[in-house]
From TrEMBL:
Catalytic residue positions: E181
Cofactor(s) the protein requires to work: Mg(2+)
Organism: Shewanella surugensis
Keywords, comma-separated and alphabetical: Cytoplasm, Magnesium, Metal-binding, Pantothenate biosynthesis, Transferase
One Pfam family hit: Pantoate_transf
Protein name: 3-methyl-2-oxobutanoate hydroxymethyltransferase
Signal sequence coordinates: none
Pathway: Cofactor biosynthesis; (R)-pantothenate biosynthesis; (R)-pantoate from 3-methyl-2-oxobutanoate: step 1/2
Enzyme class, UniProt record, top EC level: transferase
Length: 264
């Protein structure tokens, strides 16, 4: 069981092998997800909502992410571990370098940052200094107050073109992975085909190279509502490990996400 790296994910993309990703925040769940075969684990700033009970991700700190990254890293052997850089922790390239270093030292293999053109210099600087970057485009939750709510992005032609341009630019700047969130399936397909690096989707249809979900949604224990693009796998399986295997299998077969989980 060899460790998943960015090269493994690149190989999966070339072979057309769909891979799975889940968020994780502690060693026990991370260990279960890792041993069932989830390829990528993300210590997401979604912890602000699912662990801390806030209504958005903005209150999460670098220390919060570092603590949970240490916990998760002790639980895993195989999965690639990505840590989210929280709101305003990468407002300048200098802040990004300082804070990304903290997360890498906590056990992350890669950091994730939300945004496009404004981050190009940051992506290059981090990568040059040995910190791999996963970019995040589309519905970037740290900008929820700019968007005026959690809304699907890239529905009109101008916005779709901007997201595609940003995806290409961020790859050229050195990003090794891209998450696209809540965009139309057709746009996600275009981006996935245009890029060499693997693209992971959430609410972005079934044509991306990989899928990611928030673990609390997969296990049906998110408070409030489960987003339309998510799926409760515990309900159909009744057991956590079986639920995770069902998610992995459906992504591999291309049956998740189905049209009911997808935006047009
Ligand atoms: O914080 C998070 O969980 C995320 C994923 C939903 C992509 O960024
Ligand atoms: Na996040």
């Amino acid at each position: 069981m060899s460790k998943i790296t960015s090269s493994t994910l690149l190989k999966f993309k070339k072979e057309g092998k769909k891979f799975t990703s889940l968020t994780a925040y502690d060693a026990s769940f991370a260990n279960a997800f890792d041993s069932e075969g989830v390829d990528v684990l993300l210590v997401g700033d979604s912890m602000g909502m699912v662990l801390q009970g806030h209504s958005d991700t903005l209150p999460v700190s670098v220390d919060d992410i570092a603590y949970h990254t240490r916990c998760v890293s002790r639980g895993i052997e195989r999965a690639l571990l990505i840590a989210d850089m929280p709101f305003m922790s990468y407002a300048t390239p200098e802040q990004a370098m300082t804070n990304a270093a903290i997360l890498m030292k906590a056990g992350a293999n890669m950091v994730k940052i939300e945004g496009g053109h404004w981050l190009l210099e940051t992506v290059t600087k981090l990568t040059e200094r040995g910190i791999p970057v996963c970019a995040h485009l589309g519905l970037t939750p740290q900008s929820v107050h700019v968007f005026g709510g959690f809304k699907v992005q890239g529905r009109d032609t101008d916005n779709a073109q901007r997201i595609l341009d940003e995806a290409k630019a961020i790859e050229a700047a050195g990003a090794q992975l891209l998450v696209v969130e809540c965009i139309p399936a057709t746009l996600a397909k275009t981006i996935t085909e245009a890029l060499t690096i693997p693209v992971i989707g959430i609410g972005a249809g079934s044509d991306t190279d990989g899928q990611i979900l928030v673990m609390h949604d997969v296990l049906g224990i998110s408070s409030g509502y489960i987003p339309r693009f998510s799926k409760n796998y515990l309900k159909q399986t009744g057991e956590i490990r079986s639920a995770i295997r069902a998610y992995i299998d459906e992504v591999a077969e291309g049956t998740f996400p189905s049209p009911e989980h997808t935006f047009s």
